[in-house]
Design goal:
This protein has helices spanning about 20, 30-35, 50, 55-70. It has a domain at about 20-70: Ribosomal protein S18 (30s Ribosomal Protein S18, Irregular), CATH 4.10.640. The termini are far apart. The chain contains 4 helices and no strands.
Amino acid sequence: MKIYNNNEPTKAEKKVCHFCDIKMDKIDFKDVYLIKRFTNSQGKIYPPKRHGTCTKHQRALATAIKKARVMALVPFVVK
């Protein structure tokens, strides 16, 4: 058991991209449960730092979310 000094900050673990971890090539815009995981309660897309997504998958995720919004699977804005 490690004893931490309150004055020294602990090193945070590096987050791994969810899509790279499961080796997912294409993000389907019809998978609403997956898409909702990466949006907040207001319908905004979370930044990559929040979930640790890589740049390649963040771009694909944003495109999938925008397509799902147009198809009315996910709302644009929740008030």
